[in-house]
Give the backbone structure.
Amino acid sequence: MKIAMLGSGFIARFYADSLHAQRRRDVIHSVYSRNAEKAARFASDYACAHHTSDMEEAIAHPDTEVVVIALSNDMHETAVALCARHRKHVLCTKPLGRTAEEALRMMRMVEEAGIFGGYLEDLCYTPKFLKSLASVKQGGIGRVLWTRSREAHPGPHSDWFWDKSKSGGGAIIDLGCHCVEIGRNFIGKDVRPVEVMCWADTQVHPIDAEDHAVGLVRYANGAIGQFEVSWCFRGGMDLRDEVAGTEGTIWMNNFLRTGFEMFSTGKGGDYVAEKAEANTGWLFPVGDEAHELGYPHMFTDMFDSIDQGRQPQETFYDGYVVNAILDAAYRSAASKKWETVELPVWRGAEASEAIRGYTSFDDKYYLIKEEVLPNGVTKRILKDKQSGEVESVEL
Ligand SMILES: NC(=O)c1ccc[n+]([C@@H]2O[C@H](COP(=O)([O-])OP(=O)(O)OC[C@H]3O[C@@H](n4cnc5c(N)ncnc54)[C@H](O)[C@@H]3O)[C@@H](O)[C@H]2O)c1
């Protein structure tokens, strides 16, 4: 497939490294950057046949089959509108919009134009995430009760992220979008996100937006998706996920501790891993960063979906639902109350079964718990179904 890349910055290069690595078939034939020199440098680095400082020219180019949007958040909608106008398939980086209203407009443009809209949510494609999701879907940890997703680092690398009018917010919109979608995948995309409670503050940086936040998303079946995001965290990029179910637990560390540790006095290369902060002492490099961050699996799903005429794992609709949850998080941070997730378009289940259902021990009792104590005795705690009395038996 022939790709037009919009943007030549940080994520455009990560995407290009993934797309052009390992003899992949899909190639960036054109790159747009508002700065003609940067467009030319990117084209030379990645052997692109065409480069331009006119966005519409890259999209409308007769060879362009699919457009990848790797622009600042305030430019996503403009770029999607041009893709719809020229009927080119579009893959947009996260967050889809700065608000759900913006994301919904983008989703409608794509659907009305009959083009493919893929949401580039890479952290839902990491090898660890994909394997965990498969285990959860096979029932390996029972019914999901609680997810916890954390992304924290010392802050982003470009000026526009720190300007709320361009970015749409701070750590919540930038990092919370990943955490919310990770939780939503584990809990089930069919289950409606109902309300959000969020704390947010600006603790370190002189900005209008939040640089630290923690939130809880409550779903219709009673499950809770917890997110923890920060631009104040020191010591690298902390990317961790947890899923707790009635029959098991999953813990994932995606970046800071991947089993690769190195000591250096610092006499050598400066780059260790994204946002690593240090290049001396004990270091935690990442073997194949693009892979650990999910980019190759993400693009494979996107291009396979276009070829096969199916929806990808992450769609514009998903991006819009994530934005709606984040909008509620912002309202909650201001009101300090639970705030409803407003979803004018909802395509999942209207009602979801609550995650209740007690384990029956026999006709008379529920089983609360059974445990082998340090002295070797097994203790069983039961509840009488009729009287409600709780009893324990030592075996
Ligand atoms: N894991 C991920 O998926 C991930 C990681 C980083 C960034 N992103 C997303 O990628 C997008 C770009 O972020 P980045 O880190 O590459 O930022 P960046 O600043 O490195 O690059 C931004 C690009 O947008 C262009 N741009 C900015 N303002 C523009 C304007 N007004 N008109 C035209 N072009 C403009 C810049 O010239 C540059 O090419 C953002 O939406 C960000 O949230 C995603």
Residues 22 and 296 are 10 Å apart (CA to CA). Residues 316-335 form the longest helix (20 residues). DSSP finds eleven helices and 18 strands in the chain.
